[in-house]
Structures are given as C-alpha cells and as structure tokens.
Amino acid sequence: GRVGKTSLVLRYVNNVFSEKQEATVQAFYLKKHLVIEGVPVTLSIWDTAGQERFHALGPIYYRDADAALLVYDITDNDTFLRVRKWVKELQQMASKDIIMAIAANKSDLVRSRKYDIQEAERFASSNPSPKS
C-alpha cells in the first residue's frame, strides 16, 4: 500500500492529481473510454488496496483480467519485494495470457530512491508477459 496506485489511476482516467490521496480500502472501479486505431475501446480498471490485509481479495479482481499494472514506490524497497510476489502469484493464478507491466512510481522523489532501477529492469526482463 501507499505506492501511488490510486494517484496513477485517477491521473490516467480523470486527469486529476491530489497531493493527499487517501488509502484505498478494498478496491474501486473506473472506466476509461478510448479509440484505438479507429475502434472504440472501454478499459475496466480495478484499483485494488495494497495493504496486506486485503491480499486475499486479489483473485476476485485479477481472475479474468487481461492486464495488470504492478506499482512500486522507488523510496521503499519493500514495495518492490511485494511486486515480485504479485508477479509470481499472477503467473500462477491469473490467465496465462495476462499482460503485466511494472511501474516505478514517485520519480519526483528520486533523491530518496531506495531501489536500483537496473535491478527492477533485470527482474522485468526475466519475467516477460506472454505477449511481450
């Protein structure tokens, strides 16, 4: 939790940002309407709580997911360790065709960086999505 998932989703869907975003409790749902190569597309986005106490609810949201964006906070090593666990869980439990992406968040706090970007890139390269 507290890596900035909700801030990313709200910026993407509604183009808004708040410095004081409240922690997500369980999950909330948003839609984003796009046109890709002339075809209307609707993204159904679940923003799930990152706190460990909500971990067991994960399968409810990712069971039929086409993609997952896993976010970590560059100022907190533990958040990348949790991303590693989520990757393993999604590889085992989600659709075999799920597309996964890892996002390093809070880049404005680069002076407080705790996690090496090269290590994150190596991890991502060694765990490619099926369609990458």
Automatic annotation (TrEMBL):
One of its GO terms (molecular function) is GTP binding. Keywords: Nucleotide-binding. SMART domains: RAB, RAS, RHO. Pfam families: Ras. The keyword Transmembrane does not apply. PANTHER family: PTHR47978. This is Ras-related protein Rab-21.
